[in-house]
Amino acid sequence: MTYSVEVSFAPANELITSFYTFLCTKAHKRLELGPNWVKNTTEQLSERFAAELKELEYWSDWGQLQLLVWQCPKKETTTQFLLWLESLSVGELFERLSPWISTFPEDLGVVRDRVSYFLSEWDQQYFQSVSSMIVDPLITDANEKLQWKAARGPVELIELATNGLYFEPVDQAHRVLLIPQYHSQPVTLLHCYRGITVCQYSSDQLPVIEDNLPSPSLYRLTRSLADKTRLQILHYLKSGPKSYMEIVNHMQMAKSTIYEHTLNLRSAGLIRGHVLGSSVVSYSLREEALDWMNDQLKAYLK
Predict the structure, then answer these.
(1) b/e map of 197-217 (b: 16 or more CB within 10 Å)?
(2) What is the pLDDT of residues 167-186, one digit of tens each?
């Protein structure tokens, strides 16, 4: 049995993603937004709120909020979602999340109130100032993927949307919720639960602001290839799929180093990450990406 796919996007999806991205300090060095984004954003916040964020305990499982956005009846604006979230009782929260999540905090109502407060402040102090540039392109991207869905199977649709994640068929029915995102580019965010995976893929719909700059896709491809170790990994994968540890052993490098290289290659779309459940179990070469790079480079140089 394979996956069913649902494509979804609402402004609250990106509100949550931008907040998660800001808090996830370990990922800042990879962001295409650049090193100054965190600094400039912090300066935009009030001193009180910036101090509160510094003290906020990091919570990795923001995918649960994406499940709530998905279920929200009216979500054309972030305000609609936030008001709905604040109105949910503890019992309603449990009913909406329990089909996929088995463990809940004892103080679920307190958690809801804290999340509502931080997201509301983040919306007012940061997200509203950038939403006009970001939201419409992400809506366009989601509509494009809906058109693809009509012509492609679910596994192919996921791989094309994520630029290289191949979800291996599973025994039980499983749903994948595809959501375009901007702030965590070039990384695809995966949140796996019982029976559903929230997959937030990097969108390339946002326009290039400066003239004569290459597209994000072309820049990722050319940058990724400009490294000897990554070229060696591609050469190793030409013989067929390899597990992460097989790549580590072949390259004789630290796991952390290989992780960064495979993440770079995957984000560029040069390799395929074979996903089973919640894990990438192996990698394989995406030779078609070289053809796409050639086409993009020719178009850019015209």
Answers:
(1) bbbbbbbbbbeeeeeeebebb
(2) 988 878 789 999 999 999 99
